[in-house]
């Protein structure tokens, strides 16, 4: 792939050093019970234990830290109702940079509270994409802030790639690395680091059937948006980014889809067997593995648990 923006291995390593003071090196955990169920050795990369509760902390921190001094003075802006909002607000706060976060009025209060706690200024808008984009444009025009999108951005992808880079430093030769896919930032970053560090390792994504634009696009080799996506894995409702797709179509081996029932079952296994709090999106790769055990039998598989930001008072199981 001849793309000047594509992060190289040395740039991913530099990104990891750049954001070291802003993130955790998250643990890689195993479960004998899960291994028996899966008929393979599964290692969970616990990004649910990451700062702000999700891998998004990596990409946001890297994008903020790479800004020039003048851009830092003007601040950063984005539109998000989820993990990227908190991640960008926190990264900006840590760097002493103003942040302006456009959030739909319907965003959960707990998420708004998190953004405010990190020093982000919230600008509410109607809960439509067009309203979010129009409001963001006004904020950027007024403040001169730099727009940092949640996934379709090379500096963000470079930051997300540090997660799989850490996996590569564990001294384990994996047959497969799995990640969920929504906008594609984590998957693209995972695919790049894995390609550089262990090119024989397969990269396979899990995706909800109700929001399967990455699966359809991957098979068709062109982006095919999904209209009205619907899944319990709310973190994966976003449409696939163009830059992310360029990487995914070249360096990802497969995308497997699962339904909400399968996602909930996998989420429950992680809660009960691993004693880890995860959001539905994080359980999608394990659900895909358990649905397709024959593909992974006897392998060593790393699964990225993408986040743990779930309302524990409304878990999808009793």
From TrEMBL:
Which SUPFAM superfamilies does the entry mention? Tryptophan synthase beta subunit-like PLP-dependent enzymes (SSF53686)
Asked if the Swiss-Prot or TrEMBL record annotates the protein with the keyword Magnesium, the reply is yes
Membrane found in the keyword field:
no
- Source domain of life: Bacteria
* Classification via PROSITE patterns: DEHYDRATASE_SER_THR
Q: Which UniProt keywords apply?
A: Magnesium, Pyridoxal phosphate
- Per the database record, which ranges form the Tryptophan synthase beta chain-like PALP domain? 22-307
Xref: Pfam families = PALP
Q: Which cofactor does it need?
A: Mg(2+); pyridoxal 5'-phosphate; Ca(2+); Mn(2+)
Record PANTHER family: SERINE / THREONINE RACEMASE FAMILY MEMBER (PTHR43050), SERINE RACEMASE (PTHR43050:SF1)
What this protein is called in its record is: Threonine/serine dehydratase
